[in-house]
């Protein structure tokens, strides 16, 4: 029996701040007073406690004035607890008409209403604490006056209190591995069980008489997937819907219990004569007699080249895979406390008890996305093969650079990069290869690219025709701006007519223009440059490294740009091509 108090003012020793609401709205409140407040099962005490943020629903029908409006599943939210008391408030669209009302309340709030029926969802996958709305309760109807606005300047008038009996709709099973039973050798992480009659589904509560039944899609199987492993002797709870009839001869409950690396099928439990009444708790000892290997997959973050810590990792399988006993195509890895994932940290997931499921992962390809504070990068991997004696499939993940390019995927091409003694003196159109663009550019299959800046001098007038390349846009998050560090391998060569062994200037920066840019287009911001003059470079000899080049303020709307600008020279008549060979471009977020 719980005392349900009507709050017309503040609460002694406790204050609920309120404010004047516009449009006739008012804030009202309810208080539960008692020890059995019936929301989350505390397994060790077999009692229920309220959780902050819990919501109840309240119905009210006028008993003496049919013209007055009532309440239908009005939501009330827990705002505070004080010992055994729990305080709920709600905002009504308008004041209730003074008079007597017939009330009924439920926890949690129903998912939907159907006439005089409230529909609640009883999940077939639970967390072992009977939380998250699993503890479905409904009150008897009770009568009282209208709810009035909170007034925190006055104490509660105890004469206005009333009592309402709350009834549990569900039966609760309390599982535990007896102390001394160490067959699994590890704490319990998961329980699967089935019963002959349905135990989960949509619970339909009749608001007229308080009766309930399962409707729609239901299931006789249930999974308890624990957030944290549970040691022997500790309790694991599940809420089930009571059977429609008493179990008979031959009816059994089948249970499979799991640890991180083992599982066990328990001896069937005879259910004959059991009815699992609503509002009761049944203890179920998990008597493990033998254990089998459980197949798992372990992901290890082996390296991180992004430049900042990884927050979460998403694995998208090319085809369906079995993870945690379910078929899926996406798996997300993150830490429960929300902290970053460091190099060397590993995360292990159950696959199933069937070796075929983990063997099916062997050789499978997947796209791995790594999310940090400012960026999302990805890589494609192929899972290793499972060894004959292995039960764990180890997968090493390597977070890539913000951008890395070794041009291993390109075919050979040449777009106005070859030396011409005559012609080739215009600003050349851009050429696209993959997501890259370049003008006066060439490439060697599976190897590298080169920019071919050109110059010509006629009767003392020198003209320069630069070359450029522009990368794909970086996968920096929308609205984010970061400084990056760029490095790449390079070398130079040239071919001249009447030349003097001239060189070039290399410019490194960024551009925010879409698509291809002509070779002489100077679009971009180039805060870094260096001089270069040699004739030993080539596709097979890219022997220098740029070192770290810092580019500030990079966003998702900017891309890396590199320009090759030959030196302007005088003379009667000469020309030349000045090639910049580029490979192994690495871009990291600056720490």
Oligomeric composition of the shown chains: single chain
Amount of helix: under 10%
**Termini separation:** 60 Å
- Give the overall shape, derived from the CA principal axes: elongated
Which class best fits the helix and strand makeup?
Answer: mainly beta
Relative strand content: over 45%
Taking all Cα atoms into account, the compactness measure Rg is 36 Å
Q: What's the CATH first level of the largest domain?
A: Mainly Beta
Determine the CATH topology of the largest domain.
Jelly Rolls
Number of helices: 1
Q: Identify low-pLDDT runs.
A: 1-21, 35-43, 154-161
- Average pLDDT over all residues: 88
What's the count of strands? Answer: 48
The CATH architecture of the largest domain is Sandwich
**Any idea how many domains?**
4
Short recap of the structure:
By secondary structure, this protein is mainly β.
For the structure shown, list the relevant keywords.
single chain; 591 residues; mainly beta; Immunoglobulin-like; 4 domains; 10-stranded antiparallel sheet; 1% helix; disordered N terminus
Report on the structure:
This protein is mostly beta strands. It is built from one helix and 48 strands. The chain folds into four domains: 2-121 and 130-168, no CATH class; 172-293, Immunoglobulin-like; 295-400, Immunoglobulin-like (Sandwich), CATH 2.60.40; 413-589, Jelly Rolls (Sandwich). The strands form nine sheets. Strands 1, 2, 5, 6, 7, 8, 12, 13, 14 and 15 form a ten-stranded antiparallel sheet that branches. β22 (252-258) and β23 form a beta hairpin. The longest helix has 7 residues, at 355-361.
